[in-house]
Amino acid sequence: xxxxxxxxxxxxxxxxxxxxxxxxxxxxxxxxxxxxxxxxxxxxxxxxxxxxxxxxxxxxxxxxxxxxxxxxxxxxxxxxxxxxxxxxxxxxxxxxxxxxxxxxxxxxxxxxxxxxxxxxxxxxxxxxxxxxxxxxxxxxxxxxxxxxxxxxxxxxxxxxxxxxxxxxxxxxxxxxxxxxxxxxxxxxxxxxxxxxxxxxxxxxxxxxxxxxxxxxxxxxxxxxxxxxxxxxxxxxxxxxxxxxxxxxxxxxxxxxxxxxxxxxxxxxxxxxxxxxxxxxxxxxxxxxxxxxxxxxxxxxxxxxxxxxxxxxxxxxxxxxxxxxxxxxxxxxxxxxxxxxxxxxxxxxxxxxxxxxxxxxxxxxxxxxxxxxxxxxxxxxxxxxxxxxxxxxxxxxxxxxxxxxxxxxxxxxxxxxxxxxxxxxxxxxxxxxxxxxxxxxxxxxxxxxxxxxxxxxxxxxxxxxxxxxxxxxxxxxxxxxxxxxxxxxxxxxxxxxxxxxxxxxxxxxxxxxxxxxxxxxxxxxxxxxxxxxxxxxxxxxxxxxxxxxxxxxxxxxxxxxxxxxxxxxxxxxxxxxxxxxxxxxxxxxxxxxxxxxxxxxxxxxxxxxxxxxxxxxx
Length: 617
Description:
By secondary structure, the chain is an all-alpha fold. It has helices at residues 5-23, 30-50, 54-67, 72-84, 88-101, 106-121, 128-141, 149-161, 165-178, 183-195, 199-212, 217-229, 233-246, 251-263, 267-280, 286-297, 301-318, 322-338, 342-355, 360-372, 376-389, 394-406, 410-420, 428-440, 444-457, 462-474, 478-491, 496-509, 513-526, 531-543, 547-560, 565-577, 581-593, 601-615.
């Protein structure tokens, strides 16, 4: 209650009169007189405090305490007054004085707990003793019969920050039993469940908070995060979609939508969301970054590179986060590599290596790119540097073997991998690498033996069985290849790589083409933008003589994998059959200038001559 001036002075005069009367009561013993006087001084302090005269109120409380030294309540009242004035040291001193007189004074414990909690929350790195004191006093101030919401909320927050989530859940649940619509307590309860990774319980608490405060965007975002962690991305998307309907400019929600849709392989909706982030944050970084990832997933490597070049420029100008810039350059190199621009990929990785020296993953990626660009001496230099840091790395052994093979030193490459196998006997990829080199160089029986022994050693590894199937397919042992691929699919029906390989093998041989299409379509359901799978589907339709159906997936694969000679050759074959000879020639020329893998280039040149002959008729 706020007193008017007249009523305030009337109250003071009334209390002063009673105080004078108590002093003149000669019949009472002196102890009673002191307590009576103390009481009136105490009441005067309250009135002065209510009127805003804090100094006079403090003086009155101190007088009351002097007259009645055993009174704990006077000191707790004084502590609260100091606390309201943010005079924490004096509040703590007064609170302790109250507890000296009555260790069970809940008011004093409450004030001390809140003061210590406020002091801890005001520090970037809270003093541990402040937190401990706050928790101790607030626990002793708890009254289970009459829960103080503010006290319990503060105690819950302290429990969370000090790693006592179970205790936080207990006190917050108690508050909510008394006040079910206390939204702040619900949000804190959800946070406590999050610290224990109890995502379903956290989501349930956030859902209640959203119902109580439907326009609080933060609660919806936190709900979506809990649902994602609980393994319910579709429900999370629904929450976020509702949020952007409510608040179309909520950048964080759009960013989360882009991430979720990207994870779900819904690339078009992911792109829309990512572009919305870019629109809302024109100079921001996260919008272009997630957009570049979407473009990469869609196989739009030119667009991906353009987006990353812009982003790299922004981060480079900022000049603060060198690891972040190095990561972006690494992604840019991937885009250039997929475009067949090895020089661009190498330049990006070289800059990244200069920014983050001695980064092993960057060194391996740069060495691989040098090898793909047939710049072997530079690859050797990078491999030597990487070997100093990781002399026992299997990845480096494999790259060194690749370099030897590229130079024609087949026996040396095989010997290197054979020597490495005992040191890496527990790594499936070591067996796969050796078997691959055996297979590529006509030693099929040795390759099969290595993989069959590996299958016994790693009975749960579908990688080994898949590689065995691929080995049989390259050796034209198609029945055995199909058996191996079927075993992989028995273990994992959603193995997209195996679905595609088996489907493509059937298409290439012109067998069971309807089944071939179904297998590849299942692979594309799992990875809709995969250029290799799109090529397989288009090729299966081509083999079925369904040329119109073949063109769309083959065109998408051709645009995505411009340096892949086989893909460009398939595109050329389709265009030739459609009597679009000029376009067919362009596709075959791309095949000749591509990686050359898996293709007889002389046959491509023959096809180009035939197309030119047709043009001249």
